[in-house]
Amino acid sequence: MTDDLTRTTAAQLADGLADGTISSVEVTSAYLERIAAVDGAVHGYLHIDGEGALATARRIDERRAVGDRLHALAGVPIAVKDVMVTQGVPTTCGSRMLEGWIPPYDATVVSKLRAAGMPILGKTNMDEFAMGSSTEHSAYGPSRNPWDLERIPGGSGGGSSSVLASFQAPLATGTDTGGSIRQPAAVTATIGVKPTYGGVSRYGIVALASSLDQAGPCGRTVLDAALLHAVMGGHDPLDSTSIDAPMPPVVDAARAGDVRGLRIGIVKELAGEGYQPGIQARFDESVALLVELGAEVAEVSCPNFEYALAAYYLIMPSEASSNLARFDAMRYGLRVVPERVADPSAEQVMAATRDAGFGPEAKRRIILGTYALSSGYYDAYYGSAQKVRSLIARDFAAAFEQVDVLVSPTAPTTAFRLGDKLDDPMAMYRNDIATIPANLAGVPAMSLPSGLADEDGLPAGIQILAPAMRDERLYTVGAALERALIDTWGAPILSRAPELAKGA
Ligand code: GLN
Fold first, then answer.
1. Is 156 marked active-site?
2. Catalytic residue among 23, 24, 133, 180
3. Does residue 134 sit within a domain?
4. Ligand 1: centre distance to CA 156 (Å)
5. Same domain, 409 and 377
6. pLDDT by residue (tens digit) across 69-100?
């Protein structure tokens, strides 16, 4: 029964809770048991809040018993990426810099989860300050891919993807600056959505690159992701870039999933060299399935996508170097007073703290960003990258004149082995080749499992991209394709993952 509960979708849990066949305490306890049994091997969580989760579960069960009107997801537990601040619950961003920090307030997204009555199971592991594609840059050690514990679960949100894929949470949150929701989803056979920029509040989410960061839902089914998206999204006066417009109808789209007559464009530039053959094969099959379902397919060219990676790795570190300046040893988190210096100055304390608190990848990007923004180079680097960004946005605009959605593989390869790319930053950065354009242009995108690659039997992902504020189209295509793929494979792709030994 406990196992059944952890394998049930969030939508089914919500139904069971609503009709009283299960209680939130039962569901939450089942997940906490699962976490106790398998997270030692997976290391998806940095912090587990069993007491807090059960307190919420009890309150929801009591309110339901007296007939209170509750949110559809009330009582359904969730895991929260450790980049989102949680009042009274540690928030580290995967960094020593924030070790032991207990935020005094909740991020807007977290407030919304609490208001919906969703028990928060814990905080999930991530690359330090969300910089990375593998979680190996976490100061607390990497998470592991439930498909093969020697492989990466993607990054930066590999904690969230690994807890979903090992049935340690039915839902999770993520943030995506260049692919950190979608790439982890692709390598674990889960679903991840980066909403339209401004569609989900950034208030209380520790900033990496403010013009690119976007929080979004992670789940095991398209409908579950849509239900969570609807909770997380919407206008927030506390975030100046939050869009003041009605939420796209994501849940309706996920329930309908009708692609007849929809025009789908295959991005010519996101294929070929560098894409693993098994990833390309599963992608081609998914496109064929969409055609069978009545969609029209055409090839579309986005010529400036070629420069997206280069532009991103100037803009992102530039913004990151500025955002990370707040970790100055004076306001919060770590404070290291150099011992060998008598009467150290504020600068010396700052330098010692930043030296001890930031890991190598954070330092690399701070140096890169500071250099790119320095006077004399500003126009040549940051300015040129911003121009490329405009060209990429124009490529999207032109493509969406011809088609309703675009598709590509999500990541060029399946999950690589821990350690394989750690010493080669360029190889690590290239994982994001297909996900970065969406962040540069602010458009929404989803990753959906497309099957298992022949070479290694590991999951492959397909990416769906839509115009800004048309997030519902992701769910229309995602839901249709998910159903067709379940027919093709006989079951959800994730059900092929090996069972983790209890207590391993
Ligand atoms: N992997 C990308 C990076 O290292 C994306 C990170 C993210 O989306 N947070 O910057």
1. yes
2. 180
3. yes
4. 6
5. no
6. 999 999 999 999 999 999 999 999 999 999 99
